[in-house]
Fold this sequence. Notes:
This protein is mostly helical. Helix content is 75%, strand content 2%.
Amino acid sequence: MLSSKRAQASEHVPTQSPVAPGPRHPAGSRADAASGLRKDRGADPAQHSSGEVTVVDPAMVKRAVSAAALGNAMEWFDFGVYSYIAVTLGHVFFPSGNPTAQLLSTFGAFAAAFLVRPIGGMVFGPLGDRIGRQKILAITMIMMAAGTFAIGLIPSYASIGVGAPILLLVARLIQGFSTGGEYGGASTFIAEYAPDKKRGFLGSWLEFGTLAGYVGGAGLVTLMTALLSTEDLHSWGWRIPFLIAGPMGIIGLYLRMRLEETPAFAQLEKEARTKEKARREVEKRIGIREMIFGQWRSLLLCVGLVLVFNVTDYMLLSYMPSYLTSELKYDETHGLLVVLGVMVLMMAVQPFAGRLSDRFGRRPVMAAGCLGFLVLSIPALLLIRQGSLAAIALGMAALGLLLVTFTSSMPSALPALFPTKVRYGSLSIGFNVSVSLFGGTTPLVVTALIGATGNKMMPAYYMMAAAVIGGIAVLLMSESARKPLPGSPPAVETEAEAEEIRHAAKADATV
């Protein structure tokens, strides 16, 4: 179990400004745990002399990471399945006789999920801050699994007519609505459970789940396409990947229901119970206002960071397969296999990159990614356009390794932008607004730009523009590696570490 060692009750820890106020200490220095906190974060030294430190249980942390990552894997399993089986779904649900119209209709239903993601974030985020992270993550898991499973049960257009595409759209809207509360909650959950010195490493497993889910979904569809005839795939084979979501959801729900609430939220809830009723009612009324206008600087930073993260993510994993086929006339199967290979490479590197962000800091790792996309996007795309399998694999691998700088750092960097009382809500709103406006629209915008200009280097230019915006956000954010989350006490793995921080804090308070 998690044990929280507190010498006395205290007020909220002063929150960290998202904009770096002054000189920075090297990530990982001992000052980050004691006196450096006061200097960099503007914290009250009396707070740190109180001896309040959270000692986490490693077994519980592992369960928290597994449960959060599985939900993300489910979301991207569906993403991979839907993307790779889109042509078949067009025949089943939109039999217009026009292959292009079928595909557009299928992706239209897919894109509809992005439209409701911000709404889901605005609903589930504040609820996660009010009633708890664990409860909301259990609800989003149920809804995601139910929405995906339901797609596998929908009769075809040939059976029930126009009702089939309508039901598909409803299922996609349920998935999108639940996804709006998933990433912000999952990253918050891991960040609030993790020891300060390992938050980057443990957070990196969230995106490991993303990659694993996409590889699993896309790989399963590729295998089925190879083994089944077109007739079997259209009549019943397409249902199998969606029906698998049912058992996956039960497993994920079981893991999440076994978890306790995060220590950061538990402490916030304890403090809230000591306040007078009128104060709590005022806090509830200003909840949404505080999450948006009270955190506007952090929200802008969140949108900028998520922009570069998701533009490059969707460019590589979603758009590049179709770019290889439609723009470069490359064999479709080979293109898909190259993308799957790049994702497996990213999975292998992901935890190591998370450790680097703990050792050197989130800012240096993400800055390296932004600089890399700014400098290497054009050479990488030129390699891909060269056309040979080796050149395509090398160019895609270069982009994939650059993307890892974001996938490994964002799950720990984004929660650190917000204080505990609004973290789930503000992060969910900022993340999903950015994904809906910039990430999910990347394939459509790049295709339109190529069509308007005739310039097939547009994917490189688009990634470079995103890198500039992301780089500005990285420069303006504060370093959060090996430091407590704003609004939370230091979190460590052993009582010995806790005692060391208490002693250092007391010594600092006497200076």
